[in-house]
Amino acid sequence: MLKTDRSCLSLLRCCRWLVCWGLILGLTGLAWEINLGRPAHAQPPPVEAAARQVISREEAEQRLAVIAQAMESIRLCNRPGCRFLQINSQVHPQDAEQPSPIYTGEINAIIDRPAATLDKAHYQLEFREGRWRLLGGEELSDVSSFFFDGDEYEVFSSYSGRTRIEKLQNASPNLRIGYGALYFQIMQAGVEKLAPDPS
Fold first, then answer.
1. pLDDT digit string (tens) for 47-75?
2. Is the peptide bond before 44 cis (omega within 30 degrees of 0)?
3. SS3 annotation, the chain
4. What are phi and psi of 167, to 5 degrees?
5. Residue 19: CB partners within 8 Å, gap ≥ 6?
6. Residue 2 and residue 100: Cα distance in Å, rounded?
C-alpha cells in the first residue's frame, strides 16, 4: 500500500512538472509569434517626405502665377513705366517615373525700359522639395543679352563683347536686371517664399 502511494505521488509530481513546462513553452512560443510574426501594435510606415510634397498641377500653376504676379511690382529703372509687361507663366508636368522634379515651369515677359525696342525675358524654374526654384534664364535686348544660371550671370554686349561670369550678389546697383529682383526680392535666394502655416 505504501509503495502504491509513493508511485502515485511520483506520478503526480511528474504531471505537474510536465504541465509547468508546457505552459512555459506555450507562452514563449506565443510571445515569439506576437513579437516576430504578427506584431500586436504594428506602427504604420513613415510617410515619405516626397509624398508630402506632391501637389496637383492646378496648385503648382497657382503658386507659379503668384510669383509671376508679384513681378508686376518690380521697377527696373527710375521711370514709373520701367517694368515687366505681358507676364506669362506655364507649368509642365514631368514623367511619372522621375519623381523629382514633379513640375518644371517657365515665366516669359516683356521688359519696358529705355531701349530702342522692348526687351524680352525668359526664366526657367522647377518644383522640387515642395517649392518652386529659379534655375536660370535670359534677358535679351537690342544692345545686350544677359544669361543667368542660378546665382550667376553673364552679359554679352554688342559694344564690349562677352564678359566673365559674375555672382548676382556682386552686381552693381546700377545694373537693373529683372532676374536679380526676381531672385532676391520676389523669391528668397531663388526659392519660393511660402506663407507661414496658420496652425
1. 334 444 678 999 999 999 999 999 999 88
2. no
3. CHHHHHHHHHHHHHHHHHHHHHHHHHHHHHHHHHHHHCCCCCCCCCCCHHHHCCCCHHHHHHHHHHHHHHHHHCECCCCCCCEEEEEEEEEEECCCCCCCCCEEEEEEEEEECCCCCCEEEEEEEEEECCEEEEEEEEEECCCEEEEEECCEEEEEECCCEECCCEEHHHCCCCCCCHHHHHHHHHCECCECCCCCCCC
4. -80, 140
5. none
6. 87
Q: Which residue has the cell 511660402?
A: 194
The 10 Å Cβ neighbour count of residue 26 is 10
Chain position carrying cell 517657365: 106
Separation CA 108–CA 102 (nearest Å): 20
β 131-140/119-128 pair status:
antiparallel
Q: Single out the residue of 72, 97, 100 nearest to residue 84, CA to CA.
A: 72
> Which tens digits make up the pLDDT trace of 153-170?
998 887 766 677 889 998
pTM of the model: 0.69
